[in-house]
Amino acid sequence: MDDTFTAPRRSALMLGGRSLSYLDFGGPGRPLLALHGLLDQGAGFARLARDLAPNWRVIAPDQRGHGESDRAPEYGRRGFVEDAAALLEHLGLGPAVVLGHSLGGLNAVQLAAWRPDLVEALIVEDIAVELRHGEHNPLAFLAHARHRAATRDALLSALGPAAPYFADAPRRLPDGTWELPFHPQDALEAERLNEGDHWADWLASSCPVLLVHGTRSQVVTPEHAREMCERRPGTTVVALDADHFVHAAAPDAFAAVARGFLDGLATEAVTPAGDRPRA
Question: Which residue of 109, 216, 235, 242 shows the fewest CB atoms closer than 10 Å?
Answer without folding.
Answer: 216
